[in-house]
Amino acid sequence: MNAYLGPLERTDDGRWVIGDPGRQGGSYLVLGTEGVYLREAGRDEELIAWSRFMGLSMTVTPRRWSSSRAAGVLNIVFGGSGGWYEVDTNGSCLQATLRHPYTPWVGRFSHHERRYSWSEILLADALLGQAVGVGAAQLLGDPDRLGQVVGLLAPLKVRTHSAARAAVAKALAP
Fold this sequence. Notes:
By secondary structure, the chain is an alpha+beta fold. Helices cover 28% and strands 25% of the residues.
């Protein structure tokens, strides 16, 4: 892997994925030119076209175990702290509202062995949300342009959502 921003990484063959494609029995999402491909062990590949996304957000935590579905169940049963960073029973995932027909969508992915920093999580989430929010979701399917944006964002250390959104807005500007 030659570039990453939290769970968003560029593979050796130049594709951008979210999640760990090397994890045995896991799942990950491929950001393609047509849309997001969901790849889960034991299931047929699913394609969601970029034009269907109305909003997009990411739920993940820095450590692998705390991003699991089991941790999400424990958060619900025992009452977590209620922070924005907590996972639910979906574990690590992308969440979206799709159009035509209007429906909620969840794309689960496997957490890497490595720890993600809070800064990486904030920036990756802001990047996904803003690209879809401004009607530029196709940027996520352009490996070279996405590589440029991630290259600008990866060295940054942001601490707040607003700082992440500002950094992403600047990186997305033409």
